[in-house]
Amino acid sequence: MEYSEEIVRSVESLPPYSPRSNYSGVLRHFGVSLADMVPRWEEGFRFFHPGAQFEDDLCKASGIIGVIAGTADLGASGRESVLTEFLSFGEKVKRMPAEIAVATGALDVAGGSYGLAVFVHESNPITGLTVEQLDGIFGAERTGGFDEIRWNPHVARDASEDIRVWGQLGLDDPWTDAPIQTYGFAQTGMTTFFERVVFRGGRKWNPNYREYVEAGSKQASPGAPTTKDMMAALAEDPYGIALAGLYHANGVDGVKALPLAPRGGDVYYVPDMGSFGRREYPLARNVYLVVDTGAEGEQAEGVREYLRYVLSRDGQRAILDQGVYFPLPEKIIREELAKLD
User: Which segments constitute the PBP domain (predicted)?
Assistant: First the structure.
């Protein structure tokens, strides 16, 4: 991917990496390679810390598992942690992990922690949706949602906020009383992300939600309906709406992606390089390095030093050489660095 001049300038405006200490030791990664960003960051870190070494077990398992087991210092993950992982970490380590966002996921690359798009039939006159409306369409009445391991009743909502016919979104006949038919992923990292961002940790979906597995994935058992089938079905359903990656629509006629507005916002953003690079599009995703920020000692300081490098101009510039993810905007970088202090 060729990044825009705006994205390149935003990276060059970040503070350069300035070591606070000279680290010499072994740091251990567990999980996924983050589309080969892990070895790129390791090489860049060694430039400043020649005594640093790395032991990697990038077995494509959940990165947080290695940190829980004590066999890794950094859990590389292309998705958000789930409740059972938070619970396991809390039981073993006696505190919560820190999910340090280190990049924005891909725009339209399979397996690249791509952001979610919302598709409708091309004949649908709807011009955009808010995150609140997505909750009403895809979600259901709930009594709360999980914030890590804590149940939060303040995100409860009742059935009066359900959106079940297109007329509730202002559409006229023949759409007024037409039921909204929802399509999307079976339980996976994409649905976990959607539940966290849109349902605010809730887990209750519209009862008519039709589940599909990612085409070509390990979850696609013989005869299972896949995302390829989902997009074909949406192309024949004027009243349908689907969650998918942008690339799922490649070669599919009859569907269109909608602009989305963030929660509480009234500006709608199309899913493109600009809205992802600036993190304006509300369903762009993060990739993470999961760590125990409560740990102390020389090893723990080495982890913090490494993360400061990753979140510096030097570490984010390495993403431009990768061409899959997006560098983080400075505002998000400041928020992530604050988790280390």
Answer: 109-313
Q: Which helix (H) or strand (E) holds 102?
A: strand 98-104
- Residue 88 belongs to a domain: yes
Cα–Cα dist 111/34, whole Å: 9
Mean pLDDT calculated for residue range 97-119: 96
Q: Give the end of a domain, one of 270, 301, 316.
A: 270
**Contact (Cβ atoms closer than 8 angstroms) between residue 112 and residue 323:** no
The residue with tokens 């300035």 is 18
| pTM recorded for the entire structure | 0.95
Closest CA relative to residue 284, chosen from 48, 91, 53, 113: 113
Which residue range forms the structural domain that includes residue 181?
117-270
- Residue 256: inside a domain: yes
The whole-angstrom separation of Cα 228 and Cα 251 is 10
Q: How far apart are CA 266 and CA 269, in angstroms?
A: 10
Same domain, yes or no, for 34 and 71? yes
**DSSP per position, 37-50:** HHHHHHHHHHHH-T
Q: Environment class of residue 81 by beta-carbon count within 10 Å: exposed (0-12), middle (13-18) or buried (19+)?
A: buried
- pLDDT reading at 218 higher than 90: no
Pair (123, 220) in one structural domain: yes
| DSSP state at residue 168 | G
* pLDDT at residue number 25: 95
Residue type, 291: V
Give pLDDT tens digits for 21-59: 999 999 999 999 999 999 999 999 999 999 999 999 999
Which has more pLDDT, 150 or 215? 150
Nearest Cα residue to 280 out of 288, 268, 290:
268
